[in-house]
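Hi there,

I know you've been waiting on this one. I reran it after we fixed the sequence typo, so this is the corrected version. Both the input and the resulting structure follow.
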Amino acid sequence: MEIKKSGMIALVGRPNVGKSTLTNALVGEKIAIVSHKPQTTRNRICAILNRGQTQFVFVDTPGLHRARTKLGEYMVGVVKQSVADVDAVCLLVEPIPHIGGPEAELIERIRRLGMYAVLVINKIDTVKKEELLEVMEVYARELEWTAVVPISARNGDGVEHLLDVLEELVPQGPQLFPEDMVTDQPERQVMAEILREKLLLCLDKEIPHGTAVEITKFSEREDSGIIDVHATIYCEKDSHKGIIIGKQGAMLRKISTQARQDMETFMGGKVYLETWVKVKTNWRDNRSLIQNFGYRDE
């Protein structure tokens, strides 16, 4: 079917509100990594969905938070820039009848830009209906929303309705991405993100936030089609390196096995993954290392 409408829609909100879960639910495929830890998403990720004659480009952004490192500053910059150059914004909020600092800042930015803004109240499976009305009232006092859509990104409730609403806001325009493309991320970057997700899921507390992944080899064998992926995991302390590797390498094996399975699903074929762990002290405050790990401003 010929694409007649296309547009970019930013998904913004505080850390851990469900932006990446919603991105995956909207396109019906795992594009963005997900964990219960804040600041899982570091880069701006585009996920592409063709629905009828409309091509949606969803921009999943890092959570808006108070930056404490240069990496944090980069992430906050990504959010602010993403709101400025899209056709519509979805502000994701929790079903709590109170507007916090990150929400207030994003609402003010949306107001200044005067763009289509959809309030998306996520996690509705965790509250009663009357509580939801209270949330709607609080947010209605702050901005005249184009639409208010309650959803549960985790179980898919309200996601189709959200797409119907957004379809009305997407302008007439040509196809922006090829038909078979589901993300603008290079495959190498997806491999790195999958491995980083497993670090977030398998490790405790602050350690995963001090990790970065660099893919040093990504190639396909001509004879068998097996994809070789070599990955280096960087952490900030020797003690963290020991925890990531684990007793007799058990933790690194667990992380690598889970990552390889997801990589094979994404690539649609066999993956041979090798992982190493190295220490780079305070890399999150080193601008050139941040860029080296793929967090660039363009």
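Quick highlight: Strands lie at 5-12, 45-51, 54-60, 88-93, 116-121, 147-150, 212-220, 227-235, 271-279.

Best,
R. S.
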